[in-house]
Predict the 3D structure of the following.
Amino acid sequence: MFDFITTWIAAGGAFAVAALMFLENVFPPIPSELVMPLAGYNAATGSSGPVLTFIGGVIGSVAGAWLWYEVGRRLGRERIMDWVDRHGRWLTLDRHSIEHALDWFDRHGAAAVFFGRMIPTVRTLISVPAGLQNMPLGRFLVYTTAGSVIWVGALFGAGYVLESQYERVQGWLNPVTNGIIAVIVLLYLWRVFRGKGRKRTG
């Protein structure tokens, strides 16, 4: 899997990284913690340009966040809750997750958007309440981009530095990568078939 992803990123360059990071924000089982370090490694080996690869990662991350912002802004609270009741299972979302994100946004505002970009799962959810509460788009994009630059940069930098040590880790990196993906997929399937996202009663 490591070889497959790095080859794909090398072939598609910044566009492939941007697409993967966009999907990571839309479809949670695709982890940026895996994509960006591998993109950084590829850039360090010369397979792709580091600056464009990093920018692609940031653009994809921000674009995915903006999509959820628009979903929240256009649908409104009641419609998005009804949508989550019907379809949230496949994104492992439920009313409680949205309400928790709304509460956090109400208490922290712009800081929630900024720091939320660096917290797994939250970085997908936090864009919804920003849209629901009609946070100005320009302000949302500024804080989202700032948080994404830090998060993407840290992961990209880790992979970039790893290149110099690749000979030491190449024997176990591929199976570890496969193991991470397997765990993520199994966790996702467990959450889906457990019924997370169905309307709570009581």
About this structure: The two ends are 44 Å apart (CA to CA).
